[in-house]
Amino acid sequence: MSDYRKESFLALLEGKMTRKRGKHLEDASDKDLYYVISSIVKDEITPKWLKTQEKYQENKTKQVYYISMEFLIGRLLQSNLLNCGMLDICNEVLKDIGRNPEEIYKHEHDAALGNGGLGRLAACFLDSIASLKYAGQGSGIRYRYGLFEQRIIHGNQIELPDYWLKEEYPWETRKADEAIEVRFGGKINMHTKLNGDFEFSYEDQDKVMAVPYDVPVIGYQNEVVNTLRLWSAEVTENESKLMSDPSSQYYHHLDHSHSIEQISGFLYPDDSSFEGKELRLKQQYFLVSATIQGILKNFKATHDLSLAHLSEKVVIQINDTHPSLAVPELMRILMDDENFSWDEAWKVTTSVIAYTNHTTLSEALEKWPTSMIQKLLPRIYMIINEINERFCKGIWFDHPDLRDKIPELAVIADDQIHMARLAIVGSFSVNGVARLHTEILKNKEMKYFYKLYPNRFNNKTNGITHRRWLLQVNPCLSETITEAIGPKWIQEPNKLIGLLRYSNDAPFLEKVGKVKKQNKETLAKLILNQTGIKVDESSIFDVQIKRLHEYKRQLLNIFHVIYLYNELKENPSLDITPRTFIFAAKAAPSYHLAKEVIKLIHHVAATVNYDKQINSKLKVIFLENYNVSLAEKIIPAADISEQISTASKEASGTGNMKMMMNGALTLGTLDGANIEIKDLVGDNNIFIFGLTSDQVHDYYQYGGYVAKDIYHTDDRVKRILDQLNSGEFGQQEIEFKDIFYNIMYHNDPYFVLKDFDPYIESHELVERSYRDKNTWQRMSVTNIAYSGKFSSDRTIKEYASEIWKL
Ligand code: NBG
């Protein structure tokens, strides 16, 4: 780094510190430094931000709008510095003045406006869209409370509110003058126009202001700065005036304004499950209406075109069904405000909206009671009704072979509005997020829709931004890679494949091994700090980090740990490679069984970690409050990446990609993107076990699996289940009864017992492979080499060329 640039950065830092915080650099706290460095970055990018937006206007560029109820962005300072090309200088200057960069970056609150994979995917996508110089905006909600903070007390998960806006959030800019009115409820009047068409007017509606807060999305060293627009719900100006009028009902208005602000009050903490609360529906409509009104306003200001040409300049990607009210909302505006006929409006809508499906789990399918939509959004309800009528009629007349399937296809059925059906009918593209997932959509879950619209369905296998998930979180590995193959992989991650040439190069393998060792040491320190437990840095770091869900089968993992513990108790001198099992997971607050699994992990840990007899061989660690920042610490240190969902249930997974890219080997089922990882690296560089998705499907359909039989025939399994029931890992005998009952009396719906034996076998293979350091390193480097495909740059290029036509 040139001293000149360092000098000027230091000068900037000093100047800003005095101006902004009224302090000299030497007296500045870490937090002062965090705010001042953020403001330097913001100054650096603001002209580029303006210029990017002006260029889009001038060139009348087609834009993609990515609407999502979740953006799990995590901390931004370090990645913004990286993308601006200032990270190295900043780190060096900080070190020069005796400060630790990590300590400073830690002061940013981890922005958790998302639950898990779906929200993090949206954040990775924005990074790739900007880095590839596409014109694109994210659109979401500025929740005042993000995903809850998790504390564990005696093994029980406690949820604390995450008031992340307590202190100034330096990345956002409030744009009050671009606020948009969103309306709920009211009465709809229908009039007949002279030409016989109907016209609608609305009365007595509740008005809410959607105020945008813009967050810059900085492309990687390319001058592009896009926008993530987060909407905040506020009372309208009229209402605030009323409130200050003494004659008005003061308390009534306070109440009212509180209920309005609640719309952007908090993120619903459910991952892959549906909560049919009215407030959630309000959130969805609020997001969709503000976004679409904003898009149309911008379109009119930029283009001299009729809205009939919208699809030439705008494409809207809806992230799962959560924003699928975009379909009737766009119809409403085109017809009621812009005087389009139904057919004209439908043509525009279905050429602008594209839908991504992220799950086939039935508990995640959004179905709103018709009465709720009718009351809250009466005009939207009328439009959905009409969409449904026309759609069903179309099947009746044009697809007689599907007539008997109408109840399974209708948008409104059983007094419920089926949002996935609405999204499919109202969009021009429906995509799944990994090859297997898309095949399941086409051939099983949505097969009749696929019959109706074969060209609509397509696959876009997920990806992750390699800038954050390799370059930023694992600088030493990145440097080692660059030393070997040069820096081109940073722009073109596919070039990582060049590492294959080094997969037999002993000095290179050794370097990669050394980096992993360092990363494990760093994580071991964090573990010691957080839990007081010292782990063996040379043990296998076996990692399962993701939301806690039955289908993800953390239970299978902890059963294996119990099995190993039992083996060691029986034979303490058993020669096994020491293992550290690392878990991190939040459970939805009302998900009882998931919380019971968290408790079980803690109780097993309490027994295993302090058992002197086996002490050096096994450790079980649960790191609390899993979030993006914690993932950034764990992933570079993982040896084994546990991706063990019941086949067919995990649509894609993205943690699997992050760990692969950091040299971990996958131990997984043939599910989601694991299959595509396996296809690339080959059977010898991955540990695959368990039922296939077809087998799982057949068991569900035709039966034939009896969990109790395994209990009665496999002594290892019987012992574990009996231990659960006997209170061996709990304070009381009934502690884990629901886990026990679910397996024995609900016939183990996620096939934990069925996959137990092959899972144990795979673990034995892992253990044997790890003993041969050279082979292990070769496998690890092979995985890194093939991970380029899973950069979200590849995914976004596919979206851009095949769906968005940018
Ligand atoms: C999740 C899937 C994951 C997938 C992410 C991102 C939902 C509804 N779905 O397997 O469970 O990786 O979406 O596509 O959160």
Which keywords apply here?
ten-stranded mixed β-sheet; binds N-acetyl-beta-D-glucopyranosylamine; alpha/beta; single chain; 806 residues; 25 strands
How is the secondary structure organized here?
Blueprint: H1 3-21, H2 30-58, E1 63-67, E2 71-74, H3 77-84, H4 87-96, H5 101-105, E3 111-113, H6 117-131, E4 136-141, E5 146-153, E6 156-162, E7 173-174, E8 180-184, E9 187-192, E10 198-203, E11 206-218, E12 225-234, H7 237-244, H8 250-261, H9 278-302, H10 310-313, E13 314-319, H11 326-337, H12 342-352, E14 353-356, E15 367-369, H13 370-376, H14 378-398, H15 406-409, E16 412-413, E17 416-418, H16 419-425, E18 429-432, H17 435-445, H18 447-452, E19 457-459, H19 466-472, H20 475-485, H21 506-531, E20 540-545, H22 554-570, E21 579-584, H23 592-609, E22 618-622, H24 628-634, E23 640-643, H25 655-661, E24 665-668, H26 674-681, E25 687-688, H27 693-702, H28 707-713, H29 715-726, H30 737-744, H31 756-771, H32 773-786, H33 792-804
Parallel strand pairs: 1-4, 1-13, 4-12, 13-14, 14-18, 18-19, 20-21, 20-23, 21-22, 23-24, 24-25
Antiparallel strand pairs: 2-3, 5-6, 7-11, 8-11, 9-10, 11-12, 15-17, 16-17
The structure holds N-acetyl-beta-D-glucopyranosylamine.
